[in-house]
UniProtKB/TrEMBL annotation:
GO MF entries: aldehyde dehydrogenase (NAD+) activity
EC primary class: oxidoreductase
Subunit architecture: Homotetramer.
Repressor keyword on record: no
Keywords assigned: NAD, Oxidoreductase
Family: Belongs to the aldehyde dehydrogenase family.
Upper taxonomic lineage: Bacteria, Pseudomonadati, Pseudomonadota, Alphaproteobacteria, Caulobacterales
Name of one Pfam family that matches: Aldedh
Keyword Cytoplasm attributed: no
Name of the featured protein: aldehyde dehydrogenase (NAD(+))
InterPro entries: Ald_DH/histidinol_DH (IPR016161), Ald_DH_C (IPR016163), Ald_DH_CS_GLU (IPR029510), Ald_DH_N (IPR016162), Aldehyde_DH_dom (IPR015590), ALDH7A1-like (IPR044638)
Residue numbers annotated as active site: E258
């Protein structure tokens, strides 16, 4: 481990677990070994879940605004350590500086959101047909929430789930990606500091309310299979969701699935091309194409194809691929050799079905153990072959279209349904795109790319993206159980539907 990484971990409060273990962690930036993390045996993972359940039984009784205070204190820790945690994200996940910091900012934002939410967990009062009765709905804490996260948002996704779950009165157990356990250790150490500050301020707090369990899918399965975990929020590939979803359904647990995307944008004849160019370039190349919301398919109207595509190619040629912490770098590395193999395979397949590839070469930034590539544009005649699946790398497939209905139909003709956008100044097209007959995705944007998310909105997608919603709007409801309560404050007992039942 480099001295730099060790100092960062120490500054974030990590006192153990990052050395002497069996899980080898390599920085994608250099290929260097940066940690040998101690894995959690499955039995111990189960014990953590049992403890979290006991903690839940107490935590659920603490008033929600008081629970919010813990999340507020966690937000303070994040603010104080934003630079260090952001840098660690860059080292372990290969994100450029602004994206590493941006990820921590998302954590801070969800803390703020959750603190406000802790005073707004409200239900409805509903008109009842019976005299001297009141009918209402109440929302109650659910239990232990299992959080399984992916490598590409190693800490923000946990925070999206954890902060909401905590104010909702739940306990949490986190299984981070086996590719990014160091950022998880650091995040949890910051959370422990918030817990210490909470207790020091005199608040009651059960032990083991939040646990971190580290390892591969067997450790994740402990969460999926444990009867005391009523909700698993799992972020990752559609293949993972296919494995996890049925197991949760079999024991009637809730699944909040945030899976793969195959996101598209449409460039319509009236589009502001300067704005579209920036939107497309960032959405397709940012994070080296390793965002669930990365733009992967572009439908360009035939009337402007020959104007727009050459400009886009120029933008592609000008971006700096390099070490993520170096100034001016816009594109960092792929996560590992496997990701690089999938990138090459998709480009080969595209060529074999007639795709014209620009870019896509491997770039030697730090030797053979790191995998940097020039982002690729692939011009396709048909919406077919590798275009139809998510390859988690910077490949943008471009196709021409003639009329808007065809473009929308193509954009919807894939398994995933996460994010989408249209660039247009034609109000009819814009409204059609966001209407019932438009994009079938969980996110549908106008004049802004499909990538990224803002805390206030519900985040997630349809079809093979899994249907889950996290973060803002009323996503909190997934972390609570709803009860309908009818209260009779009269002296008679009118039965529903006017039934007579005299005894
Ligand atoms: P992955 O599916 O390989 O792993 C994700 C997590 O699931 C890891 O923690 C892994 O250990 C765990 N896991 C895998 N199989 C499991 C099983 N059978 N039981 C329990 N746990 C299991 O994904 P990845 O390579 O880390 O991340 C990239 C993928 O995640 C892409 O497909 C991307 O689109 C998707 N993603 C989606 C969102 C979203 O919000 N929709 C966000 C980020 C990433």
């Amino acid at each position: 481990m480099s001295a730099d990484t060790r100092i960062l971990l120490e500054s974030l409060g990590v006192t153990g677990g990052h050395t002497g273990g069996t899980l080898k962690v390599h920085s994608p930036n250099t290929g260097e070994l940066i940690g040998e993390v101690v894995e959690t045996p499955v039995d111990q993972a189960k014990a953590h879940i049992d403890t979290a359940h006991e903690a839940f039984l107490k935590w659920r009784l603490i008033p929600a605004p008081k629970r919010g205070e813990l999340v507020r204190l966690f937000g303070e820790e994040l603010r104080a350590h934003k630079d260090a945690l952001g840098k660690l994200v860059s080292i372990e996940a290969g994100k450029v500086t602004s994206e590493g910091l941006g990820e921590v900012q998302e954590m801070i934002d969800i803390c703020d959101f959750a603190v406000g939410l802790s005073r707004q967990l409200y239900g409805l009062t509903i008109a009842t047909e019976r005299a001297e009765h009141r009918m209402m709905e109440t929302w109650h804490p659910l239990g232990v929430v299992g959080i399984i996260s992916a490598f590409n948002f190693p800490v923000a996704v946990w925070a999206w789930n954890a902060c909401l779950a905590l104010v909702c009165g739940d306990a949490i157990v986190w299984k981070p990606s086996e590719k990014t356990p160091l950022t998880a250790l650091a995040t949890h150490a910051l959370f422990d500091r918030a817990v210490a500050a909470y207790k020091a301020a005199g608040h009651a707090m059960p032990e083991g309310l939040s646990a971190l369990i580290i390892g591969g899918k067997e450790v994740g399965e402990a969460l999926v299979e444990h009867e005391k975990v009523p909700l698993v929020s799992a972020t990752g590939s559609t293949a993972m969701g296919r494995a996890v979803g049925p197991k949760l359904a079999a024991r009637f647990a809730r699944a909040l699935l945030e899976l793969g995307g195959n996101n598209a944008a449409i460039i319509a004849p009236s589009a502001d091309l300067d704005l579209a160019l920036r939107g497309v370039a960032f959405a397709a190349m940012g994070t080296a194409g390793q965002r669930c919301t990365t733009l992967r398919r572009l439908f360009v109207h035939e009337s402007l194809y020959d104007t727009f595509v050459p400009r886009l190619k120029q933008a592609y040629a000008s971006v700096k691929v390099g070490h993520p912490l170096e100034e001016g770098t816009l594109i960092g590395p792929l996560i590992d050799a496997h990701a690089f193999a999938l990138f090459e395979r998709a480009l080969d397949e595209a060529r074999s079905v007639g795709g014209k590839v620009t870019g896509g070469a491997r770039v030697d930034v730090n030797g053979k153990d790191s995998y940097y590539v020039r982002p690729a544009i692939v011009e396709m005649d048909a919406h077919a072959g590798p275009v139809l699946r998510e390859t988690f790398a910077p490949i943008l497939y471009i196709m021409k279209y003639g009329n808007i209905e065809d473009a929308i139909a193509m954009q919807n003709a894939v398994g995933a349904g996460l994010s989408s956008s249209i660039f247009t100044n034609d109000i009819r097209e814009a409204e059609l795109f966001v209407s019932a007959a438009g994009s079938d995705c969980g996110i549908a944007n106008v004049n802004i790319g499909p990538s990224g998310a803002e805390i206030g909105g519900a985040f997630g997608g349809e079809k093979e993206t899994g249907g889950g919603r996290e973060s803002g709007s009323d996503s909190w409801k997934a972390y609570m159980r709803r009860a309908t309560n009818t209260i009779n404050y009269g002296r008679s007992l009118p039965l529903a539907q006017g039934v007579t039942f005299d005894v």
